[in-house]
From TrEMBL:
Belongs to the carbon-nitrogen hydrolase superfamily. Nitrilase family. Keywords: Hydrolase. One of its GO terms (molecular function) is nitrile hydratase activity. SUPFAM superfamilies: Carbon-nitrogen hydrolase. It comes from Brevibacterium koreense. GO terms for biological process: detoxification of nitrogen compound. This is Carbon-nitrogen hydrolase family protein.
Amino acid sequence: MPTAAVVQAGSVPFDIDASVDKAIRLMTEARDNGAEIAVFPEAFVGGYPKGSTFGAPVGLRTDDGRRQYERYSNGAVTLDGPDVERLTEAAEELGLFVVIGIIERLGNTLYCTALMLDPEVGIAGAHRKLMPTGSERLIWGFGDGSTLDTMDTPLGRVGSVICWENYMPLLRQTMYAKGVELYCAPTVDDRPTWAATMTHIALEGRTHVLSACQFITTDAYPDDHPFEVDLPYGSTAIRGGSIIVAPTGEVLAGPVYDEETILYAEIDPTAKTRSHLDFDVVGHYSRPDVFELTVRTEPRNSVSFD
């Protein structure tokens, strides 16, 4: 059976080149251990600014906060830029399918994006987080229905749902309707409750779930990075909790905390088919006579030119 890898590691905050170097090294390690797909955490390239408020209390902005945002923005990447090209070329050379979280810059707005890389076609999808969580809305824009992408792989069809998007029932239903067989959940949610969420989704969608979370400590950030609140785990900024779950709800690997590691699991493509004997949330268990979901997949641009 084919093997999937979930990478639990921290980015190199505000350093694009170092983060891409680290990603390629971990991609190579996963491939060398037999993986055909590797899933990385949310915001792996570009970083997650844990603990920073960007000087934006209600009704105020500070010059220091704007300088923080400038540095953060300078660490973002564009889909057509050299950094994404390096990742794409590495996936091609390794023959590895990759899902990796990036901070994407488009114009003057940043997006939290899950990049899907196919070793033969390059960028197969780039899903922008539809609903940034809480204060993330200050620094990240909102995605739209045009980036609800999937990617076909030898292990099955891959879809990506980022962090607390996984608590949006209609978004999950959309992914199930797209036929997702490997449901990838890049995240920075390191709470113990996350494992229960991933198990629920595996059972609900009858799908393999691969969730990758960062593990990163405060000393990985620059000395002047403002941790403006007390972190719940002391010097650990994000503590991991990555996990792989089968369509039956069986945990195949993880959750693992407080270390960098790569989780591996064999993927049985037929497990999904067997699991749909008694439950198909978009088929024989869906009741379309009572419930209906419409998904708008056209791009939503603020300005259109005829």
